[in-house]
Amino acid sequence: MAMQANNLKIAYIGGGSRIWAWNLMADLAQAEDMSGKVYLYDIDFQAAKNNEIIGNNIQKEKWEYKAVETIGEALTDADFVVISILPGTFDEMEHDVHLPEEYGIYQSVGDSVGPGGIIRSLRCVPMMEDIGYAIKDYCPDAWVLNYTNPMTLCVDALYHAFPKIKAYGCCHEVYEVKDILRKALKDILDIDTKSRDDIKIQLTGINHFTWITEARYKDIDIYPVYKKFAEKYYETGYNFKHENNHLNNCWRQLELVKFDLFMKYGYIAAAGDRHLAEFCPGDWYLSDPQSVLDWGFALTPVSWRKDYLKERIEKSGRLVRGEEEFDLSPTGEEGVKQMRAILGLEDLITNVNIPNRGQITNLPMGAVVETNSIFSANSVTPVVAGDIPKSIYPLISRESGNQQLLMEAIAERSLDKAFLAFVNDPLVRLSREKAREMFDRMVAATSEYLTMYK
Amino acid sequence: MAMQANNLKIAYIGGGSRIWAWNLMADLAQAEDMSGKVYLYDIDFQAAKNNEIIGNNIQKEKWEYKAVETIGEALTDADFVVISILPGTFDEMEHDVHLPEEYGIYQSVGDSVGPGGIIRSLRCVPMMEDIGYAIKDYCPDAWVLNYTNPMTLCVDALYHAFPKIKAYGCCHEVYEVKDILRKALKDILDIDTKSRDDIKIQLTGINHFTWITEARYKDIDIYPVYKKFAEKYYETGYNFKHENNHLNNCWRQLELVKFDLFMKYGYIAAAGDRHLAEFCPGDWYLSDPQSVLDWGFALTPVSWRKDYLKERIEKSGRLVRGEEEFDLSPTGEEGVKQMRAILGLEDLITNVNIPNRGQITNLPMGAVVETNSIFSANSVTPVVAGDIPKSIYPLISRESGNQQLLMEAIAERSLDKAFLAFVNDPLVRLSREKAREMFDRMVAATSEYLTMYK
Amino acid sequence: MAMQANNLKIAYIGGGSRIWAWNLMADLAQAEDMSGKVYLYDIDFQAAKNNEIIGNNIQKEKWEYKAVETIGEALTDADFVVISILPGTFDEMEHDVHLPEEYGIYQSVGDSVGPGGIIRSLRCVPMMEDIGYAIKDYCPDAWVLNYTNPMTLCVDALYHAFPKIKAYGCCHEVYEVKDILRKALKDILDIDTKSRDDIKIQLTGINHFTWITEARYKDIDIYPVYKKFAEKYYETGYNFKHENNHLNNCWRQLELVKFDLFMKYGYIAAAGDRHLAEFCPGDWYLSDPQSVLDWGFALTPVSWRKDYLKERIEKSGRLVRGEEEFDLSPTGEEGVKQMRAILGLEDLITNVNIPNRGQITNLPMGAVVETNSIFSANSVTPVVAGDIPKSIYPLISRESGNQQLLMEAIAERSLDKAFLAFVNDPLVRLSREKAREMFDRMVAATSEYLTMYK
Amino acid sequence: MAMQANNLKIAYIGGGSRIWAWNLMADLAQAEDMSGKVYLYDIDFQAAKNNEIIGNNIQKEKWEYKAVETIGEALTDADFVVISILPGTFDEMEHDVHLPEEYGIYQSVGDSVGPGGIIRSLRCVPMMEDIGYAIKDYCPDAWVLNYTNPMTLCVDALYHAFPKIKAYGCCHEVYEVKDILRKALKDILDIDTKSRDDIKIQLTGINHFTWITEARYKDIDIYPVYKKFAEKYYETGYNFKHENNHLNNCWRQLELVKFDLFMKYGYIAAAGDRHLAEFCPGDWYLSDPQSVLDWGFALTPVSWRKDYLKERIEKSGRLVRGEEEFDLSPTGEEGVKQMRAILGLEDLITNVNIPNRGQITNLPMGAVVETNSIFSANSVTPVVAGDIPKSIYPLISRESGNQQLLMEAIAERSLDKAFLAFVNDPLVRLSREKAREMFDRMVAATSEYLTMYK
Asked: Are the C-beta atoms of B262 and B91 separated by less than 8 Å?
């Protein structure tokens, strides 16, 4: 690899993105020891073009942005590939998330598991496979960061298309739980911590259903601290993130799911409650909208996403026209830190989604899992997380197995096999006739994107 | 081991049994190259005493039966230990099976998984642990055959109590599916087979949820044959076992669950439909009594078991008093064949439940699984079954993980942890409050047997 | 697979063979429930042609033999492929075995390991790869039995060329050790056994260096018996096989190596002493010709093989001309029994060489190992042998690793890498300069067959 | 664990040490955010007492040193335990190293493998077991750093005595090879590096025979650099460490062994040449003193160690009497950095010796191996190193297996079994009679320490 920290080529697939791409721009601007070009590819070329303008307004001498019309142009000789795509539009997502409500099934996110996550996978995995084939052709040595959900299936699809790909999936949910642990330290022990990097954890599981099995701040075991914290706020919840803002209704999260899982399973779940709830058994948190309210979180409606997209498009216009200044403050995302580590500029230990090659000893080899890894010069090496504890193993193993089945079904382009994964999903608590009816309706609603299936 | 094929000592724990013990008597009587003593231990000493009389009526010069009042007397220097106990009485089982009906949960058997299987495990595992400890003390070199359900938990409990125990669990469900395959060969290809030993299979899974992944008769692949068979009888069912007898209502089985699983998952499920249905997702076969009827099987009420027990007790009386002759025809069970193989008198390849030590490569080491094993001189050696196929892996892995969690909960005597397994069971499709209420009521109903729990 | 027990096609690669092919003819003639055609392919077409005549003289109506001029003709639609080839001629083998004597290195066989085995591998593996490729093209569903040495490398080469091949390696050394155990039972306990099938064993290791970790006859543990036997004959040796015949000088074997290994390592080595000695450390048995004599075995000179070949050629002539009758007595080989089991006509448990897919838990997956397997309808399934015992693990692991390295070297056609395996061989106790000189001379001596190497 | 970075208790077993203990004193003095007490235990109490005085002269207010007469006093409630003991005296070591010379066997170090390493293990492992038992009793939660050789056996002994021990072995050989890589970068590419922490490596193997499978400086792949470096100095050697000092004769090292191994095996060996040579096959580097000289390294005679010990004792006296100032410059050892990381004060990625729990996928679980690990708050977590490359696997697997066998032999206190490991050692190229004679003589020479053996 002729990778140069000062002459890098980054390919951004989904380069018209108005969240992740802007985050990357902000963080690249901070990275003093890196420079190069960022090629933006998007099926919405105009969106990529706008991002080209926005990006070049920042510091063109250091990072040059360029919208391109073919994926090949973006990928050729890239050192890094960043993938954040929307598989379909929010119209498709609307069906994914809300059609099941007609069957009494509520989804807080609907992009990872559950009926929505599965139908989204049907659309998304073939796209990711195509990206994987293109990477094999144009830049087989590049490092590939995926942000797209469903994370597990997307990473699996990349490796399925190109087994030697150097890809990993990157998710910030764990970081936010580290921040909760900092709050707990402050709240219970009145300890101020400088950054979430001070919180040292052992991690195991699958994306959006990861678990922290040990947590320390210096010589302090955070587990007993978190126990007190969970007990203290078990009734009221802990309003950690969105104190008084307008998101409350759609993104609110009082950590009650997390506390409840801790009380039951004895381990700290490491994702947002909206995600965690979708992996849980027996209709615990998502049986109906009132339950969701009682558990202190929210069902995020796709209408909110559509509204928010409009806002972002308007903001994009303002940025392009220079009517608004680009916000350069650090985003809290780790993509650029990971690139720096891969470039050998520092070491980084963080959570990552890659196929199991020994890191989790009681899940099958090859299953995409999320554990800590060391990012170092040209390497992302998982640490040995060992066995998932018995109390949470059935939940994780069940879902991991279902994801592997879904991947096999999609690889074979078999909707009948995909239905086996669908009906086995924890949120799908229907008779098989009802389940099949819902599945068929959901497939029909997104059929435009599923022409490759039998 | 100073084991002599002609001077054997067999200890029978649950020696008052009126089914399994009589089966053993019949099969031992056929085994020409074996002789010895059978010690019968039962908490109902009189039942054991009756079996002593019944057994000694058969061929006392070859096999002498002796009821004993302590487990130590039974076990001391035993070469084989047979365990078939009823954990509690049918009154307890009545709660296990029928109390969940108040919550809309129907169980066809209720002794392996489901709410009934889990509560039964709470009673049974401590008993099996005690038997394990006693074997460690009195006959650590003995081979131990367990027939008791829940099979997986019982075997796990024995190894938990005494890791070096030479124990395995023995279940006839797979044999019966071999007979179905013979019927299919006859029905579809008009081929007569001599015995089920002619049917060669590859097997994987967990007890009562085992799957045949390959099946051959001589050079004939049975899979396409079974496919035609399943298709032919998919509407009507195939009345294989109990054509016109009075059991119909309680034990009827038209193989429709088996055919349906085959159509969906592409593999032959190898247990009775009443068992299989309890492991299946999304309320497929057990959503209500009418569904069960439509799927051609039956909910076996515990009242039937109570009535049948009365019949057996009466029969026992007649046998003791010499008013009825003991039926010596072969039972189709394999326990005695297994003993012969362990004694080095022949080799036997058959299905067996033992901890995973490599036979299934995508389930955790140590989980009790059911695969083929070779029974040979002083050895029961599992064959390498490899990975469970992806389409059935989530179903099996989920339940296997749940069983391991339940075992850990019971080993810790923690009802709260046991509830985690309970609420995670595929049949328990309740909100957590309802689930906990049902759990607590079921525990209360059998509390007499659960005094060791916190 | 449209395999018919009565219309089989067997392809024999090396079909001019005057030992193994004749054995097969004899055993096929006994197999009453099988019939078909045997296609003989050999680079010496005339030899194959002679065997065609010899074979057809036996029972042409049942088994028809046909010499063919291309491998494709032999393999097309074959149900079974038998491979027994000589890689090169005895002239090459003469260098393999005797050139090292100039460096003080003596080899009793020289066809598996040691300098001779390694150079033979350089010739043989590419040939086996070509056969593997041809099987992939002409009969990918065929079962493939290899008899050729070096067994481990040959089987590895077949799987390397065609990973889905249904191949296994078949070796009679273990059978003979079972016969020694029968002798021990007779000698020590005066027990008569009917056949070696009565001896039940657990087996682990690699070809020609397999070990019996448990052995039983009925309920008798043979280990203490063998201990007495080994102690009784530790001084004199036990003249088991070739009491007074002319082979004495070249094949003599008094089992002293076997007894000595048992005394030291506590396990029964399961191959002929001539093979075992070549795997052993520190110059134990092969330091010089006198040692070999003292240890009761023989260095088999290639001149003997040449003489014996002449005898066989003459015998072949007599058989072709009908001057001698073909000996139809059973050979003791198991190839035909294995075919019968694969055809579903019986089950067979026996030792076999296949890649490790879990059968040995402390050798790498994929390494070709020898353990028990079940031969059943269309399947050869290894049993779980678990960990190799610690005391013999270093010897086995060292050699297994060396074989894997050699395979990689040959796959890369790299003589320099092959030298790494060469110099690491237990028999090569030379300085590296001397070792390289010997290696280069040996390579030169067989260079005609090594044109594909760099 | 109530471990406080500012009130630590460190127990030093072998606390009279005049090298490692002084290194620790120097490094602890630099660690600004740590303080506490160091308890010194040594069978030579006076030596510990002297170190108490020396230590307390440095900065008693921060680190207080205290010599104690019992191991229990040292260990009670310790947070860290440091072990650096000499098993026996240099008189014993003299036999270990030099007696084999009578048999033509030369050892450059003689403390890890080879006849010397094995005999040293016989003495040392029982001592380490006793320390392990004491740790179990007095401070089961302490972290235990071992510096004692034979490293692999010592760590294995600790885990054998107390399976839940939090112990690891710590060796600086890898660090020094990182410094060689820095020299190569300077020499070949004229790149200045700041510290060895800039060199990022992937590591695998066993102690003193570890291998760097990837090496990077920033975005530069060091492998091609090292190749040029090795080629450049392949004839002359590279005098990296001891340019012109008096150690030349006993410690000289021109890296020729390392270069030669790289040329042959394609991987960078990561230990000093004196160690590497002792693991190598076929008498490559240690066949006689002239060879050693030609290969640019030295046989370190024990007489040198004795002389050097005298110097250190004299120096100790001067330090005690205040006639010489204690040298506080950083030692380059990592023990204190590791403690800081375990205290949660920073993360550290470095090489460490611990039992295999998945980090090396083609060595047995439980074998003590050396790979990278993350040191973080209260954890030492190995990274997944995957399979050892095939070309070096036989060398490593052979020796690792031999070490496991030796450990089993010592655990059973069986000299006969230990001899099996002895005769299998790569350096022992003798007939078995000669080998046994040498073994028996070496055992006799150190018999005073081996009274626990059968």
From this structure: no
Model pLDDT for residues B116-171, shown as the tens digit of each residue: 999 999 999 999 999 999 999 999 999 999 999 999 999 999 999 999 999 999 99
- A378 with D219: Cβ contact below 8 A: yes
3-state secondary structure C88-126: CCHHHHHHHHHHHHHHCCCCCCCCCCHHHHHHHHHHHHH
CA distances in angstroms from A164 to A124, A136, A140, B1, listed in the order given: 21, 8, 8, 54
HSE-CB at A239 with a 13 A cutoff on CA atoms is: 8
Q: Extract the tokens encoding B190.
A: 């008009």
Whether the Cβ atoms of residue B171 and residue B207 lie closer than 8 Å to each other: yes
Indicate which of D432, D434, D436, D437 best probes the interface with C, i.e. most C CBs within 10 Å of its own CB: D432
DSSP helix/strand/coil, C42:
coil
Whether the CB-CB separation of C271 and C208 falls below 8 Å is answered with yes
Question: If you average pLDDT over residues C246-269, what whole number do you get?
Answer: 85
- Spatial CA neighbour of B370 closest among B355, B357, B390: B355
Element (H, E) at A371: strand A368-376
Choosing from B172, B208, B246, B275, the catalytic residue is B172
More confident of the two residues C242 and B348: B348
CA distance C145 to B156: 40
* Contact map slice: A 122-181 vs D, CB within 8 A: none
Q: Per residue, what are the HEC states of chain D? A: CCCCCCCEEEEEECCCCCCHHHHHHHHHHHCCCCCEEEEEECCCHHHHHHHHHHHHHHHCCCEEEEEECCHHHHHCCCCEEEECCCCCCHHHHHHHHHHHHHHCCCCCCCCCCHHHHHHHHHHHHHHHHHHHHHHHHHCCCCEEEECCCCHHHHHHHHHHHCCCCEEEECCCHHHHHHHHHHHHHHHHHCCCCCCHHHEEEEEEEECCEEEEEEEEECCEEHHHHHHHHHHHCCCCCCCCCCCCCCCHHHHCECCHHHHHHHHHHCCEECCCHHHHHHCCCCCCCCCCHHHHHHCCECCCCHHHHHHHHHHHHHHHHHHHCCCCCCCCCCCCCCHHHHHHHHCCCCCEEEEEEEECCCCECCCCCCCEEEEEEEEECCEEEEECCECCCCCCHHHHHHHHHHHHHHHHHHHCCCHHHHHHHHHCCCCCCCCHHHHHHHHHHHHHHCHHHCCCCC
Residue-wise pLDDT for B430-446, tens only, equals 888 899 999 999 999 99
**CB-CB under 8 Å, C379 with B381:** no
Amino acid at A17: S
C-alpha C147/C-alpha C155 separation (Å) is: 9
Give me the interface pTM, i.e. the ipTM: 0.88
Which one of B237-241, C154-158, C174-178 scores highest in mean pLDDT? Answer: C154-158
Nearest to C204 by CA among C337, C348, C362: C362
With an 8 Å Cβ cutoff, is D343 touching chain A? yes
Catalytic residue among A160, A172, A208, A242: A172
Q: Dmax of chain A from CA atoms?
A: 61
Which of C291, C362, C420 is nearest residue D264 as measured by Cβ atoms? C420
- Which residues of chain D does A379 touch, with a Cβ-Cβ cutoff of 8 Å? 200, 202, 214, 216
Q: Is the pLDDT of residue A124 over 50?
A: yes
Chain center to CA of B292:
22
The yes-or-no answer on residue D172 being catalytic is yes
Q: Inter-chain contact D282–C430, Cβ cutoff 8 Å?
A: yes
Output the six-digit token pair for D123.
Answer: 């003495």
C400 vs chain D: nearest CA distance in angstroms? 8
Burial A311-346 (b: 16+ CB within 10 A, else e): eeeeebeebbeeeeeeeeeebebbbbbbbbbbbbbe
